[in-house]
Amino acid sequence: MAIKNVIFDMDGVMYVGRTAVPGAAETVAYLRGKGVNVFFLTNNAEKMREEFTQKLNSFGIEAKDGEVYSSGYGAARYVKETYPGKTVFAFSNGTKAEMQRQGIELDLSGKAQVVVAGLDLQINYEKLVAAFRAIMGGAEFIATNEDMAFPVEDGLKPGAGLIVAGLAASTGRKPVNVGKPEPYLLDIILKEHGLSKEETLMVGDRLETDILMAKREGVKSMLVLSGVSCEKDAKEKGLIPDYIVESVAEIPKMGII
Ligand SMILES: [Mg+2]
Q1: Do the beta carbons of residue 174 and residue 146 sit within 8 Å?
Q2: Which residues contact 210 (CB under 8 A, 6 or more apart)?
Q3: Domains of the chain, with CATH numbers?
Q4: Protein residues within 5 Å, CB atom, of ion ligand 1
């Protein structure tokens, strides 16, 4: 069946650190020119949705606010649906802002009823103490994602998994993950925009999140080698995507869209 919807992961796919992946803007323009619906789905919860839109736009990549989905936004939607009226401890400013936008009250004192753990570039011990105490006091424990690393220009940096796994180990509790590879955000995109799984392609650089989620959900998958995972990993992990390409720059030349 023809591909009518393409969902791009962002880190390692559209850009690496502060550098755009060559050809990313041209590929997005090509797809839009073909009438394909384009969306962006990131496990990054450090920023608000519109800040990710601005980042894409700064690289010349056409994106509109309603097309960009982040795990911080997903966590806020999840808390609002699942734990209405409960107070939340969240880490990064982006996640906190997404919570407030959904009308959720923050409590950073260590007495919150829900802890949303994720990557925070301003992490410090006081924040970890507050999250730890809230969880030990019985708070619900949610992760924006559990990614152990993300790519930057000169290698990898530790991701949300550093903080989530630390809290899980110290509290003995296991979080509910709303980020990839869980299908929560993908389901929101498919439902909100009325997309069929058969006509949807997920493009990502990470096998154990992007590609695993696509396979679990029954959408098509494409691994790009411009980020974390390499071709050898796909065979070793038994996660074979429908397509493997060097980068998104190859999409217009493939003849699949
Ligand atoms: Mg990525």
Answers
A1: no
A2: 9, 180, 181, 202, 203, 204, 221, 223
A3: 5-43+180-253 (3.40.50.1000), 78-177 (3.40.50.1000)
A4: 9, 11-12, 205, 227
- Expressed in angstroms and rounded, the spacing between residue 38 Cα and the centre of ligand 1 is 16
Cα 149 to ligand 1 centre (Å): 9
Place of tokens 């992961």: 9
In DSSP notation, 33-72 reads: HTT-EEEEEE---SS-HHHHHHHHHHTT----GGGEEEHH
Cα–Cα dist 74/226, whole Å:
25
Residue-wise pLDDT tens digits, 166-187: 999 999 999 999 999 999 999 9
Query: pLDDT (tens digit, 9 = 90+) per residue, 70-109?
Result: 999 999 999 999 999 999 999 999 999 999 999 999 999 9
**What percent helix, strand, coil does the chain show, rounded to 5?**
40, 20, 40
How far is 131 from 110, CA to CA, in rounded Å?
6
Q: How many residues does the chain have?
A: 257
- Where would I find the beta strands (DSSP E) of the chain? 5-8, 15-16, 19-20, 37-42, 68-70, 88-90, 114-117, 140-143, 149-152, 155-158, 176-177, 200-204, 220-224, 243-245
